Amino acid sequence: MFIQLDHISHWYGKHQALRDVSLELESGRIGLLGPNGAGKSTLMKILLGLLPPSSGTGQVLGRDLLHAGIELRRLIGYMPEADALVSGLRGADYVALAGELYGMPRKQALRRAHEVLTYLDLGEARYRRLEEYSTGMKQRLKLAQALVHDPPALLLDEPTSGMDPAGREAMLDLLVRLGQDHGKAMLLSTHLLGDIERVCDAVVILHEGRVLCHGPVHELCRRRQNRYRLLVQEANEAFLDELRLEGVQVLNDNGRGELRVAVPPGWTTRAFFVLADHHSLVVRGLQVDDEDLEELFHRMVTENGTSANRPA
Amino acid sequence: MTAPLLHYRAWQGEFRRPICSVWPIARVALCVLLRRKLFWVLYSFAMLLFLMFFFGYYLFAWAESRPELAKIQIGKANPSQQQVQEFFRKTRGILNGGQDTFSVFFSYQGAMVIVTLALAGSTLVGGDFASRGLPFYLAKPISRWHYIGGKCLAVAVVVMLMTTVPALGLYGQHAFDDWEYAVNPDYFLDYGLSRSPAGLPLLLGVLGHGCIFAVVLSLLLVATASWMRRTIPLIMVWMSLFFFLRLVARLLVEGLKYDVRWRLLDLWNDMCLVGQWCLSIDHEGIRPLPQPEYWEAGVALAGVCIACLIYLSRRTRAVEVVR
Amino acid sequence: MPDLLESADASRRSGALTASPPIPRPASPILLCEHVSKWYGPVIGINQVSLELRPGITGLVGHNGSGKTTLLRLAAGQLRPDLGRVQIAGQDAWSPEAKRHLGYCPELDRFYEEMSGRRFVESMAQLCGYARREALRRAAVALERVGMIDRAHRPLAGYSKGMRQRIKLAQALLHDPALLLLDEPLSGIDPIGRRESVELFLELARQGKCLLISSHELEELEKLTDHVAIMAAGRVAAVGTLGQIRELLDDQPLSICIRCEQALTLATRLLEWDEVVGLDRYDHAVVVRARNPRRFFQRLGQLVIEEDLDIRHLETLDESTQDVLGYLLTKR
């Protein structure tokens, strides 16, 4: 069992950051989603043993949250969102220092630092000063310092922020491999739903301090049998009118030919092609429109939002 | 991403206790400092001072034995032979390896240390707060006291390198002057404090004085640098802590004739007083008078240290490790 | 529970159909870059870039170091080009008159932290040259537009990243400029805020403004526009809609995934076509590599009608911005 939380609540003065959070999450790749101010950072601080919760108990990898703070931080490698750099050091020294702080002997830490930096593709850059690093390199460096002591679990805060698409691909690939091939448990907190869809099997959605839902993504997202996404180039009004005549509801049209429609029962996809042919149009895309992560998130938040509290 | 054959390897091993992380923190801070050329320039000045004390003893002893050297002219002033001889004798008395030597040495060297720490403060400590590196440390399996301890250790090492280590050199110079040490097993226990060769109490006094400097200065610097992270503001605050307060204390006690306890404002003086107590120097022999009691200075320093610790505790707690 | 899509579309259905980026272009471009080059000492920033932007949303994509930020700063009039010229609405971008038509929302996150958001936006409005009352009014309107009106009284130091982005956007919108330059406007914002921002950008584009959005988040960019400018090594590698750019990549045939019950029949028939270069068959799916996409899809439509195929899934696998970027920018 990776994380076990039992009625965790936390107050900052009068403001309640977490309300009665109870979770049981198996080891795996888990995404943590939520609007800003939902209590994600408070939850992460509690999981790292930095903050004792105001009430409730919990365990991470079998260690108690309230008493085993230092042990927790050894078991969980934390990759921060902000640049937590020690100025004046070189890449390899920085990661080696992280290793020593985790409790590794000095030579082991140095050796392991080089190994992890090679794995993360920071070849010659490891001998350069940290101030000279680009964003992509800094992100990989932060992951290196979290991985150096081979922790059983990782806590990642916006791992791909600021990275260009190629770097992002590579980072996500890496995370999937670390999770799948090397059995590391991961908790990924990010705003980029694409990252979560790519890396995580399960997701936890937080809003206003409460857990709205948690579980595997494919179980949470609704399947909608009668909805399709249609891509018809240069769709015109006549085509849409005829669709509507046939009983199809055009739910969304983004102006570039991408339509989201709800079809009546008994509809076959062939009919789309027939209609398109009538108007000399070409169907270039057709997909069943199940709920994706963004819609799930939006649905959860609007269903359960208590006040007109606008997140950032 | 990498060559497909170089897979990730797991690591097994024994983890050490959190207390073992204090030295790596200090070591890393020191390495960053020792790379700066400015530090070495200042250190060489400090070494010059040490060399002055080291060779000064022999120089003045030799000068005293040559009466013809007593005829000197400094500008328009033409001191008499008597005065010059008197000067040589007095200086040699100070440099003779007794308590006074070390007291004077520490106070001269201390000025150098204060300047160095002003410039080194931002490298050693302030950098972490400025570049937001503190979350890096605090997210590791250490408590914030280990972090503070590591930084204090780094500053203490700098202070010791500049004061105590040369002082021990001076002690060694005088202790092994008289080669009786090779013959007499009780050599170090027999002799007293007021002249060379030196004994164990003097050695402990030197170490004690050095430790006072190290502890108080390190706590003060770490606290100040965590408040003022950048170099120039740190230098300004640090200098005013010592020079400005010193002036105010002197003004109040000697100029305006306030109660002698106002001199406790002068932190530098307090440190020297406690050091002089370690060296068992007679309280009445200190200049300039009046001076507060030794225990009063000790209490003042303890108060300052506790205030620094409280400030540091709150400052490190306020850092958001997860934003 | 109201379906989100229906409520969002209701307003659009009542109006014109082609809501965002209107295709008919007015005569003169709002932003004109003509053979612009800029270098920093020995390092080349951008190398002979020509770009014309008209009302609508244009995405600016490219790897780090490809010159995107340099181009944006040149367009914002913060840098002078070493060669060529940059004009906004006919005026040289360096001149103050051009700045009236320009709203710049940079990536940098530096504010006067003790000020409240409202005070900051009001100061910016006054810097624009408005009298105090007008400045206050405009600030309030801008804050309303970005959705910060109820939270703007707090000091900036306590703001989350998303709120700071909104304040930056508000200050760019104060004087209702014709050209908006946005550098990574969606980074750090949560999915709900993102949706609101996307709505806002689409609204601004509908009003006839020209938006140039530089972003790494290609999925969000695809929701906003399909008109992109791809930059690499200081040059504009391609400008146009994704479809147009994709078609330029002749030597990369499209990969199309078709899932259908009668996969075998489909596969057999497809192999006979000239356009089909290669075909992979899976259980109930077929992945086709095809040239001449237009013709292919036409023929596919007719095939579906003739053979009464039940298509479950039809998707071009490598037409996304990500893939186009990958093809254009990888060395072969």
Considering the chains and any ligands shown, give keywords for the structure:
heterotrimer; A: 312 residues; Rossmann fold; Alpha-Beta Plaits; C: 332 residues; four-stranded antiparallel beta sheet; disordered N terminus
Give an overview in words.
The complex is a heterotrimer of chains A (312), B (323) and C (332). Chain A has 312 residues and is α/β, with parallel strands linked by helices. Chain A contains eleven helices and 14 strands. Chain A has two domains: 3-220, 3-Layer(aba) Sandwich (Rossmann fold), CATH 3.40.50.300; 227-288, Alpha-Beta Plaits, CATH 3.30.70. Chain A has helices at 40-47, 69-75, 91-102, 106-119, 135-147, 165-180, 193-199, 217-220, 237-245, 270-278, 293-304, and strands spanning 3-12, 15-25, 29-33, 55-60, 63-64, 76-79, 153-157, 185-189, 202-207, 210-216, 227-232, 249-253, 258-262, 283-288. In chain A, the strands form three sheets. Chain A has a six-stranded mixed β-sheet with strand order 6-7-8-3-9-10. In chain A, strands 2-1-4-5 form a four-stranded antiparallel β-sheet, with helices on one face. Chain A has a four-stranded antiparallel β-sheet with strand order 12-13-11-14, covered by helices on one side. In chain A, a hairpin with a 2-residue loop joins β9 and β10. In chain A, α3 crosses α4 and α3 (91-102) runs parallel beside α5 (135-147). Chain B is mostly helical. The longest helix of chain B has 32 residues, at 99-130. In chain B, α6 crosses α9 and α9 runs antiparallel to α11 (267-278). Chain C has 332 residues and is of the alpha/beta class. Chain C folds into two domains: 27-246, 3-Layer(aba) Sandwich (Rossmann fold); 249-329, Alpha-Beta Plaits. In chain C, 38% of the residues lie in helices and 27% in strands. Chain C has twelve helices and 14 strands. Chain C has helices at 4-14, 68-75, 96-99, 117-127, 132-146, 161-173, 191-206, 218-224, 242-248, 263-271, 293-307, 321-329, and strands spanning 31-40, 43-53, 56-62, 83-88, 91-92, 102-105, 179-183, 210-214, 227-232, 235-241, 254-260, 276-281, 285-290, 311-316. In chain C, the strands form three sheets. In chain C, strands 6-7-8-3-9-10 form a six-stranded mixed β-sheet, sandwiched between helices. Chain C has a four-stranded antiparallel β-sheet with strand order 2-1-4-5. In chain C, strands 12-13-11-14 form a four-stranded antiparallel β-sheet, covered by helices on one side. In chain C, β1 (31-40) and β2 form a beta hairpin. In chain C, α4 packs across α5 (132-146) and α4 (117-127) packs parallel to α6 (161-173).
